[in-house]
Amino acid sequence: MLQRPRRRCEGTAMGAIALDLRPGLGIGPFSLGMPISEAFAQIEQQPSIYDVVHVKYHEEDPLKLDIVISFPDHGFHLRFDPWSQRLRLIEIFDVKRLQMRYSNSLIGGPSTLATFVAVYALFGPTFPGIYDRNRCIYTLFYPGLSFAFPIPSQYTDCCNDGEAELPLEFPDGTTPVTCRVSIYDSSSDKKVGVGSLMDKAIVPPLPSGSLYMEEVHVKLGEELHFTVGGQHIPFGASPQDVWTELGRPCGIHQKQVDQMVIHSASDPRPRSTLCADYFYNYFARGLDILFDGQTHKIKKFVLHTNYPGHADFNSYIKCNFVVHGSYLGESFQEENDSKQRITASTKWDQVKDILGDCGRAAIQTQGSTSNPFGSTFVYGYQNVAFEVMKNGYIATMTLFQS
Fold first, then answer.
1. 25 in helix, strand or coil?
2. pLDDT, the chain, mean
3. pTM, whole model, 2 decimals?
4. Containing domain of residue 166, as a range?
5. DSSP for 301-328, written as a single string
């Protein structure tokens, strides 16, 4: 797991914060199902509170494990599904560092211990929980919420047959203190807790008609088709066409001069004016559209996968693109065959199996102080170029006409 730390702002004080606890929904400004970009936006709006943030992910295979945003000073972290990049689970791993506000009452933090008796009194009666004998952990469940309590070895008999009398108190009059709180979507009616129970947390379903993770079907050399909205954006479309179909872009900027191009020494124009092409940026769709500066027609599409470990991570929401095999060559006709299509999850070796090993690294983009993640490699085929990360995953796919 790779950690991406953020520097603490000088002058900010450490201490427990109080966040509203919403069982089955979220905590504070963080809601289950939210995209990772929205979580970062909330963090950036309150830098004095969320001043130390770690981003953790699997460097070699970013789809293997959750993407985790951790707040070590406040004792909790956010777990995002690696494919959809939406929040599936909130874990409070140090209850003494975070106060939770529920029904006008506070629990947790350094001044209000989250004991079994206190939890039971605040959240009310429930069914007996589950005792994990291997971990010596007793977990109490409410809809969309669970509390884990460590049980000292001398008191394991209190949890006969995995159950216990509620509220749980030990023979010496003490009661266990919460070691972990889990907040998760309750619509699936699954019990989520520590260990293997953590994997049962799923991302809440998207609302009907949501454009998030909308499949974008790519017809190489021809067009993009947005499956939820039904829009078709072909090469050669005008800015007015794009505004009509996709709405106002998030940003517009002029394309920088291509340093790979050797310009004529006799050209009297300044280098900065040699390229008048311009981009429409649709960050919320993971899409850039390049227009020709003279004809004002679309000449390129750039689709972003938003993988952690790339310099542009969190600049775009993931584009859920699909290039079907029927557009890749005569031998690939079955559109439903996952082995014969390219998606944002397809690794470079699979792309070569589909397109053939005819691409060679045309450009190597070097790492720098502003890009600590190292080089990426660009491979070009007819009508498409792939920017590939060191781990073999596609960072961007650029579409153009021959």
1. coil
2. 83
3. 0.85
4. 2-200
5. EEEE---TTSTTTTTSPPPEEEE-GGGT
